[in-house]
Hints:
- This is NAD(+) diphosphatase.
- By secondary structure, the protein is an alpha/beta fold.
- The protein is built from 38 helices and 51 strands.
- 33% of the residues lie in helices and 21% in strands.
Amino acid sequence: MEDKKANIIATLTILSLLLVIIAARVYLKLSKPFYLLAGVDISLILAVFCFLVIRSRYNRERKNLESRYISEGRELRIEYSFLRKVAGVPTKFKLEDLEEATDGFRVQIGKGGSGSVFKGVLKDGSQVAVKRIEGEEKGEREFRSEVAAIASVQHKNLVRLYGYSSVNRYRFLVYEYIPNSSLDVWIFPGKRRLGGCLTWDQRYQVAIDVAKALSYLHNDCRSKILHLDVKPENILLDEDYRAVVTDFGLSKLVARDESRVVTEIRGTCGYLAPEWLLEHGISEKSDVYSYGIVLLEMIGGRRSITRVENKRTKKKKLEYFPRIVNQKMRERRVMEIVDQRLIEAKEVGDEGQVMKLTLPSYSLRVLLLHSIACHPTMSLSGAAAVGSSRNLKRAVEFGKTHVVRPKGKHQATIVWLHGLGDNGSSWSQILETLPLPNIKWICPTAPSQPISLFGGFPSTAWFDVVDLTENGPDDVEGLDVAAAHVANLLANEPADIKLGVGGFSMGAGTSLYSATCFALGKYGNGNPYPINLSAVIGLSGWLPCAKALTGKLEEEQIKNRAASLPILVCHGKGDDVVPFKFGEKSSQALLSHGFKKTTFKAYGALGHYTIPQETEDVCAWLTSTLGLEEMLALFLSSSSSYLTLSRSVTLHLSRRTTLSSLTMSTNLRTHAYAGNPLKSKTPKSTDTFSPSSAFESLKALIPQIPNHPAPSPDFKVLPFSKGRPLVFSSGGGDASTTTPIWHLGWISLSDCKGMLASRGVDLDENSLVYLGPKVEEDLVCWAVDVSEEEDGVVSGLESRKLCFVELRTLMVAADWVDQRAMDELAIAGHARALLEWHNVSRFCGSCGSANVPKEAGRRKQCSNKACGKRVYPRVDPVVIMLVIDRENDRALLSRQSRYVPRMWSCLAGFIEPGESLEEAVRRETWEETGIEVGDVVYHSSQPWPVGPSSMPCQLMLGFFAFANTLDINVDKEELEDAQWHSREDVKKALAFAEYRKAQRTAASKIEQICKGVEKSKSLTTDFNVESGELAPMFIPGPFAIAHHLISTWVWSLTHKVLNPLPLRYYLCYSPPRSEPTMATSFFRRLARSAPIAAFPAALRSQIKSGHGTFRFSAGAIAALSGGFSCYYLTSGNNLAYLDQAKEETGLKTALNPDKWLEFKLQDTATVSHNTKLFRFSFDPSANLGLHVASCLLTRAPLGYNAEGKTKYVVRPYTPISDPEAKGYFDLLIKVYPDGKMSQHFASLKPGDVLEVKGPIEKFKYSPNMKKHIGMIAGGSGITPMLQVIDTIVKNPEDNTKITLLYANVSPDDILLKQKLDALQANHPNLKVFYTVDNPTKNWKGGVGYVSKDMALKGLPLPADDTLILVCGPPGMMEHVSGGKAPDWSQGEVKGILKELGFTEQMVFKF
Length: 1406
């Protein structure tokens, strides 16, 4: 059409030009203009002609191309249609075609939860099953899911989708027709109308087909497909009774890199995996669980959940078939679970034939191992492994290892082993949530290997299990491989980190096996075990190779290792996988073989998976066993700007805190000489082991020695000579690389009598001192002093070579991670202190008469009856202080002349009469170094029985002391030198190897002493050569409290101290109410009560912070003082309290209400997920000028306006810091995503400045202005309330009662809760009530918006002497009290307060 128009136009144009030429010839003749016009016209005619020729040629070529493209397109469409059909791509059918194929949907062959299925025949004769999706929302979702899932898969065991149809609300899926219906009608009695059931071989083949189909969906598709509804009704059988999986209506497409997805619960009751309910997300293993249920149903020919009738009561109850299967399997009554129709048809002959069906056997186990993520994956190799033999080669390739890094200081590393069929990832997710920030968790994945218990079916496992019975064979080779893998993972950990291993189920078995390897010092194959374990945990597991331990733990060194290893075994009484008796017997076996620190915990309601109660016990046990401790700095002095710490305040590990930046870890091992396991008293004096009963038994036994009968309890004696206990050494040797181990030389009463008789002394009951009993050994321990005995090797005592060794040498030789050694050291220290006390208390201090022992040597009494004074053993306290500088980066260490070269330690001193501990620390530091100390904080204590004979025992009290001055002036009579040492220098001095070498050297020295080779009993000369390359300095070893003080500072107290105090410490600080001195209180009262108005100002002008010179005459002051003394003594609390800040005049003010000033940001701290504290600094010599309760205006630039001037956003904020604070103020800011000012705050960094103007007084408070003040705050509306609260509680004369009702969205949104709780605990006149909109599970406060009932219960009733303060978001204000008036005046009282009867005079709105 376009071509015709173009040709007509061109022709008309040519004719028009010819007419122009003719007309020109007629009118212009043959003139020059004619020729010019004719030339132009002819040119145009030629141009038009050329255009027509070119266009004609172009059109011809275009038509040829179009013809060719149409032909090729037709061929492509034919080929594409052919390929779609070959590839099985579904076709979109018309609704009319489906109605015709199904004859109007007349023949229904099935019905499910989401639709009905009809039989039909397509035009080409193909039989199809047409599924009609029913239900609007649910049907649309399932329709899209099923089309997406089935259209992307092609497998012979998956139903084929021919096509689909979607017209308006009608949706259809067209499947291939499977003739033999679904599996359920062939395996459940009563469902098959034509009779008969599937044979055993057919069921076996169905299991294989379904496994292949699921394996294809999980592993071989581009996107992993989860079926999520595997059940017999969705498994169809073709004409050959081969399985075809259908009904993808609930399927879920999952990306390859996703291990778990969280979705709403889908599927059919009875086939749902437990992880649906545990909110941990689902994976392909959820299909495997459902598949296991189907296999059970195929074996038993019954539903997994059935309702049965009790023949006696006629009541029906639900019966769970998998539980029955588990019970029958344990009882070895396998044939009772098999479908009786198969047995009657002789399809199954014996148990062996059933056990060979490995997939059903596997399904039994997979059902039972139903902890989170514990089901094995369904791989094609797994399906192919059905029927494979045990001869398959063991796989030793371990899976991926997952590591959970410590959130705090790294103190311990634990390898955690998963259960059968699981992997390391699932447990790493659980361990990451535990409140153990100092532990690094390593979670390896076991190799995949055939499991005999599963008939050779492969699964991730640490070793092979043939049978879960006591007599089952042990896979020692597999256990060694697993234990070696654990050891390799721990081998690269730092030397000062404690190591442990734990596990669940089979992993627990591997962990307990590792414990036996540690004790034996070797694996089962004889190779040495290289790791020093500090803790072992087994949850719901058992001890493999328990019987093989008999007779292997007899050597002394092996016994010591076994006795020193803490083990925790937990088991549930409801465990139906690893029965409870296995865990109980395993713990008994460990105890009987010398693992004395085995703890067994039983749980009544616990099955084969972890519950919170169990994990809480594990956390508490690890915290105690490994010495983990969380420490928080809560003690602050209101007059100090230095960091102080309180070790007495600890955080419970299962409690969350927003002050994570404050949490500091301290690895405090047991102090030397502390933790004596012997108790000096028993609950009852008549007890056999009590001092009095034991003493009477001793008196009766001594005359009969050596022919006395074996007593019960038995008696053992520890001899001392000149303060040195008797010891012997074991292990080691000339060719041995093992460090020798010392032991206390306990001897019998007969040997003790002989030892005393050798020097002409008779043994009597007063020679011995009672130490305490060992009840589990039926033993009472005593000590005796044989100091007249010559030093040297003591012979004649059994076959042991014993010698008296200096207690300090034993202390250095003790392995501080060996609990046995620490226990014996504590016993020796306790005994030495008692004997030394006996030596120095031989005579009465009152009359000079001799003292005689009483109560088995536990006390003494003057033999002079007229005096009769009692004397008890007491200790002499000594303060040990580590002085820290104000920046917290240097510590003061000293040297004494008696120290060995290179050793530096803390300062020390005695406490003088009438002196507190803190005063002693300050005095001793000043006397010895000339340094003034401010704050003093207690750390820990340690008994120290190694002083001179004049002091039988000292109690070392460790403190941190914070220096006010830094210049050192050493008292040379006390110290040789004292110096400030940096943290890094001290850290280098704490070399672990140095102390280990010292310990080995001392242990070897003791062995030489016992052999009679070494004569020296002291180790004071050995410290200088303990390391091949000497460090410039070293610190006393872990046996000294100084070491603990110094290491705590080096590794834990690393927070930099700011001046003024760091902002984050304010969050948890509640200053106690300080009482004014009498003089200060008098002048305050005097200033406020004087009738002469000019007098207070005149008096205040003369007083500068308590100092100054009075210019009044002495007589005037005397007269005034006398005149007002009576008034002071008789006046009550009605006199006003005058803040010290108001007594001071002449201070410049930091704020200006008329001018914007810049304040520098000093520090920030996070309060909650969307709230921060900002500390801004100013000149400390200035006064902030803030009144209660006042706000500040802040502003931030927002760009420029049309005139080029800076635009600002201005917002008011109320500081929450003390108005008297010097040099800083704090703002609490909630950061909103769209808040311009709050976003500006969030962008500020320390050093940036903020423009501030103010203050603007909102509410003028005066002490005792009201009897009771109620407060309602929401969110950051707490800030003005906190100003008022702080002002009231700081004033001891302000008796105002305060009640705060604080509303927030959730518990995490409650701002400054720690501070409010601390204020409430310290001040009885303050009560705080919390309410939240979205409570957590453990929330114990109010729930919901502020209501009338809450106000009635928490606030004062309307009265003239009550006042309600309200501050919060606009919605809350309107609901509670009504908002302010448009002119920002208080406005009318509305809402809840109006309903309760409060008037405008009783309510103030911020």
